[in-house]
Write a structure and sequence with these properties.
Chain lengths: ~400, ~375
């Protein structure tokens, strides 16, 4: 075990630091500023282009696909250094790199790879995810959006939901039903879809946060050329699994609980500060211990990955704990501050950050594997306990209640 | 960066697990309790033959000269088996205190004998209701003589040597005391943990030799307890993992309302959460073991963090393991109670959670949120 960089890692880190010092400051966002969406996307694309030109776009993507072909540790090192700058890194870039490219790289044709990989790495193409539906969330394979083959195209009808930044995305990754007679996982097919296609209507969802970064996307007689199908008909579920694998390895954040300790220290209490209160100390210290544990647990997972081992459902532990910790500690911090946290002076940014965290944590506990789904995965795949009893097993989709 | 145990450490763990699994089975534990035994002496002999007690003791004093993480993987296996051996008292506590604060003569006199398991030592720090580590000890050391009462002291019935936390010229200090003389009264207490006996030790002008370097070194003494915390946490991780799998195995076997008990989400989700807590505690333990050897400046926070997470994990695991077993878990014949009791020993021996929360908060470096 060695938590320090190896000489090669140290060399890579020095190289990255130097590169970032030269290129990152010009792309940094002004602290605390809220940008309009279009401006943010433009900045995100510009930073991605900078990364591409520097040879740092798609560090983990193989060289044959146009990536750097680097190691997981290099990706981690780059990430650690990049995080030191306040850069525009929205889902419109992340979905392309983390979801669209892996699935196109693994299941796509040479032509599709050629068409999509380089422009995405360059930040020229942004992506959104068209997976969930009103009646298909945790049970994703229950999607009802239908694609029917007509000549050399598929005609798609249905409704998708929770598509982040769909209103600013060039392309979407889409899973739909092509065979309702098959059992539900088997009747699915995967596509990429041009978001400017006729028949696509995007409606923003008014979220509890007040923002609208998620959308409902309605597809009415949308024609998708056959050439934009990824993999064969019926391979949609396998493609989804490739996408979702990438979603879970990178959860968590460092330094949050330290910040909450400072927040408590900045809250007067009985002639001292809230951080001097034993109950507050114990709660924050316990949360800090968990945050550190997550960091070292993630390091263990990365070590596994760097050896070619698949951490599988172990990775679910990161997301499961992060979302709950975010909710619990941001809620706790508001209590620590007291009534002032309900309506602080306009310039108190940390309290507003807590509001954001407390609200956002609810979405995080649901998206990309709800708490309950993750607990099932851990108990079934790590502990080897029995799967859930399923009423839909072996039943053709169109016969399900 | 490589965040996994080395091959040698995995082998060490496997060796320890194999031996403990064979010689310290639950039936053996029941036998020891029924016999009112103080400890598992043959098991200690077997562990000693393989050199485990001397793992972290330097080679010049007859040990293997391994590190904190190596010792940790052994502690974890001891915890998994709830083994009735004085590994914690003698090696994690007493030997480490001598190694860190003893003179060359003291080290030469005791470390080789502790390393080979021939002598058992213990560390007497608690003083009844005054707490696990009172700010000023009521046991005084004057002119080579020790007087006062330490209680409770783990494994003091089988130990012939105690490192005693005391006051010397008004300063905190550690002193070495041989327990076999007539000036020490050892009284066995009716204890909660049936596999780790606790004693009250009364010293009356008992000959003692100060560990000179410890006198007044409050930071050094805290570091000693940090190091104890790291090992006790490894022990708790081993215990917690044993509980998770014991509960899983029982649930898999047990049929209820026509299906496996393990198929209920109430059980699956409970065990998933405890497994997460255990793996997270293990991750903190890995770092703390590594920091203890390689990054001493980070030890205080790492020891406190692993303490809090390991106690939480083992506490949940020990309680819910028994719960998953249902009525059978309440019987002496089931194996849940060994952990249920040992968990309290590990949770309480090193002081309250609040001590570790304080230690963590006061040592966390720079806070990041802008001043509100």
């Amino acid at each position: 075990m060695d938590f320090n960089d190896t000489p090669e890692e140290a060399e890579f880190r020095a190289e990255v630091k130097a590169w970032l010092a030269k290129h990152a400051p010009g792309h940094e966002l002004p602290p605390g500023a809220t940008l309009d969406d279009a401006d943010e996307v433009a900045r995100g694309k510009a930073w991605q282009r900078e990364l591409y030109d520097g040879g740092y776009a798609g560090i983990l993507l193989s060289k044959s696909l146009g990536g750097r072909g680097g190691t997981i540790v290099e990706a981690v090192v780059f990430d650690e250094e990049e995080k030191k700058y306040n850069l525009p890194k929205g889902p419109y870039i992340g979905i392309g790199l983390g979801m669209a490219l892996p699935v196109i790289g693994k299941h796509g044709t040479d032509e599709q790879i050629k068409k999509f990989v380089e422009p995405t790495l360059k930040g020229e193409l942004t992506w959104c995810q068209l997976f969930s539906e009103p009646a298909a969330g945790s049970d994703l394979a229950a999607v009802r959006t239908r694609a029917v083959k007509e000549g050399d195209a598929y005609v798609v009808n249905g409704q998708k939901v929770w598509s982040s930044w769909a209103h600013h995305s060039d392309w979407g990754i889409l899973v739909v039903r092509t065979d309702p007679k098959a059992v539900k996982h088997k009747g699915l097919t995967f596509f990429v879809v041009d978001m400017k296609s006729p028949g696509i209507e995007i409606r923003p969802i008014r979220q509890i946060s007040g923002a609208s970064d998620f959308n409902e996307t309605f597809l009415s007689d949308v024609r998708i050329p056959e050439g934009d199908r990824i993999g064969a008909e019926g391979e949609g579920w396998a493609c989804c699994m490739t996408v979702l694998m990438g979603e879970r390895l990178n959860q968590g954040e460092e330094g949050r609980i330290e910040a909450l300790m400072q927040y408590a220290a900045d809250t007067p209490m009985e002639g001292a500060t809230a951080l001097d209160d034993p109950a507050v100390r114990l709660s924050l210290a316990t949360a800090y211990a968990e945050e550190r544990a997550a960091k070292y647990f993630q390091a263990r997972l990365r070590t596994m990955v760097s050896r070619g081992e698949n951490p599988g459902a172990l990775a679910a532990m990161m997301k499961l704990t992060y979302a709950s910790r975010l909710q619990q500690t941001s809620g706790l911090a508001m209590e620590i501050r007291g009534m002032d946290a309900l309506a602080p002076h306009e310039d108190v940014i940390p309290t507003r950050q807590l509001w954001h965290d407390y609200i956002w944590s609810t979405a995080l506990r649901i998206a990309g594997g709800a708490d309950e789904v993750l607990r099932n995965q851990i108990s079934e795949r790590v502990l080897g306990m029995p799967g859930e009893m399923r009423a839909d097993k072996g039943v053709p989709f169109d016969e399900l209640k | 960066m490589n965040f996994d145990l080395a091959e040698e450490q995995k082998m060490l763990a496997e060796q320890a697990r194999g031996l403990l699994g064979k010689q310290s089975s639950p039936d053996r534990l029941r036998e020891l309790i029924d016999a009112g035994a103080e400890w598992d002496e043959p098991l200690w002999a077997s562990l000693s033959e393989l050199g485990f007690p001397g793992a972290r003791i330097p080679e010049e004093y007859g040990g293997l000269g391994l590190g904190d993480l190596d010792l940790g993987v052994i502690s974890e296996e001891v915890g998994r088996a709830v083994a009735a051996v004085p590994f914690y008292a003698s090696i994690v506590c007493a030997a480490d205190a001598i190694q860190r604060f003893g003179s060359d003569e003291q080290k030469e006199a005791w470390l080789p004998r502790l390393a080979c398991g021939e002598v058992v030592g213990t560390l007497a720090h608690a003083e009844g209701r005054q707490g696990w580590w009172p700010k000023s000890s009521s046991v005084s050391c004057r002119a080579g003589k020790l007087s006062g009462v330490k209680t409770p002291v783990g494994d003091a019935g089988i130990a012939s040597l105690a490192v005693v936390y005391c006051a010397y010229e008004g300063k905190p200090a550690l002193a070495l005391v041989e327990l076999d003389g007539e000036t020490v009264e050892r009284r066995k207490l009716d204890g909660f943990d049936q596999l780790r006996a606790h004693y009250a030790l009364t010293f009356k002008d008992t000959p003692a030799s100060l560990l000179e370097a410890s006198v007044g070194d409050e930071d050094g003494l805290r570091t000693l307890t940090d190091r104890m915390s790291v090992q006790a946490s490894f022990e708790a991780v081993g215990g917690a993992e044993a509980c998770v799998y014991m509960a899983r195995d029982y649930a898999m076997d047990r049929q209820i309302f026509g299906r496996s008990l393990a198929s209920y989400q109430a059980i699956k989700h409970k065990l998933a959460d405890i497994l997460v807590a255990t793996e997270f505690a293990r991750s903190n333990a890995f770092f703390a073991g590594w920091a203890s050897d390689n990054a001493p400046a980070e030890l205080a926070v790492a020891a406190a963090a692993v303490r809090l997470s390991a106690i939480n994990a083992y506490e949940q695991a020990a309680r819910e393991n028994l719960q998953v077993h249902g009525g059978i878990g309440y019987t002496f014949e089931a194996d849940c109670h060994f952990h249920y009791r040992r968990e309290r020993t590990l949770a309480i021996t090193l002081g309250p959670r609040q001590y570790w929360a304080d230690r963590l908060v006061t040592h966390v470096p720079g806070k990041q949120m802008e001043t509100a």
